[in-house]
Amino acid sequence: MSSRARLRDTVRNGLARAGTTPADAVLAVGVALLVCSELPGDVYANPVLALPLVVLGVPTLAWRRRYPVAVAIVVCGLNFGFSATAPGKYPPQLFLIPLVLAVYAVAAHTGGRTAWLGAGMTLTLIVAGHAVSPDGEALDFLPWLVWGASWFAGWLVRRRTLDAAAVASEATLRVRLQEENAREAAAHERDRIARELHDVVAHAVSLVVVQAGAERLVLGADAPRTRAVLDAIENAGRQALVELRAMLAVLRSPDDAGSSEMGPQPGLDELPALAARVRDAGLPIDLDVDVPGDVPAGVGLSAYRIVQEALTNALKHAPTSTHVAVNCRDGALSVEVRNPLALAADQADSGTGRGLVGMRERATLHGGEVQAGAVSGAWVVRARLPLPPDMAGAP
Question: What is the pLDDT of residues 159-171, one digit of tens each?
Answer without folding.
Answer: 999 999 999 999 9
